[in-house]
Design brief:
The structure holds two protein chains of two kinds. Chain A is mostly beta strands. In chain A, 0% of the residues lie in helices and 53% in strands. The chains are: A mainly beta, B mainly beta.
């Protein structure tokens, strides 16, 4: 079974631009979560989608948004990029949402200049 | 508020020595606690969860509600245990909203 895939793996943007990251979950998994990982703040939960609906949300500004498609693939979008948005963005999928069945992707490294 | 604290950013022990990675949490309800591990150039993966009370790769962790701790232990460290370890808390059963600690980088010296 293929693992969680994320595209692109690396991205360089400039301040003020917007970016869209993609996550393809493991086949059959209906829940997709997104995390931001930075050296200063560590791993922080962004949001979770289940069956195309946002089910949980972390404490991030509205510039961070996401969506999930009917095939469970998910995208997250960051608008008006700031330098502090430079991070590794991890996606995780699970069958129904429980952490015990959660598998992480390799991440997308975003650098904002 | 939910919070997970891993007091040691770095931990270095010799092969064959016991290992203990500390994790303390703050949560008013009944949390689910997890340990995740990330080996070099690999993905973050679940190591163990307190509910299962399993021993994975020789590691165990006991939830101590009185001390609000979930320390990870292994009696005899092996070189392949070198990795980044994260303690995480889920406050709502079945929810994927995990709160992670800052992580501890464990190095096992030969």
């Amino acid at each position: 079974k293929a693992g969680v895939t994320q595209t692109p793996r690396y991205l360089i943007k400039t301040r003020g631009q917007q970016v869209t990251l993609s996550c393809s979950p493991i086949s059959g998994h209906r829940s997709v979560s997104w995390y931001q990982q930075t050296p200063g703040q560590g791993l922080q939960f962004l949001f979770e989608y289940f069956s195309e609906t946002q089910r949980n949300k972390g404490n991030f500004p509205g510039r961070f948004s996401g969506r999930q498609f009917s095939n469970s693939r998910s995208e997250m979008n960051v608008s008006t990029l700031e330098l502090g948005d430079s991070a590794l963005y991890l996606c995780a999928s699970s069958l129904e949402g429980g952490p015990e069945t959660q598998y992480f992707g390799p991440g997308t490294r975003l650098l904002v200049l | 508020a939910q919070r997970v604290t891993q007091p040691e950013k770095l931990l270095s022990v010799f092969k064959g020595a016991p290992v203990e990675l500390k994790c303390n949490y703050s949560y008013s309800g009944s949390p689910e606690l997890f340990w995740y591990v990330q080996y070099s150039r690999q993905r973050l993966q679940l190591l163990l969860r307190h509910i299962s009370r399993e021993s994975i790769k020789g590691f165990t962790a006991d939830l101590n509600k009185g001390e609000t701790s979930f320390h990870l232990k292994k009696p005899f460290a092996q070189e392949e245990d070198s990795a980044m370890y994260y303690c995480a808390l889920s406050g709502v059963q079945g929810a994927q909203k995990l709160v992670f600690g800052q992580g501890t980088r464990l190095t096992i010296n030969p």
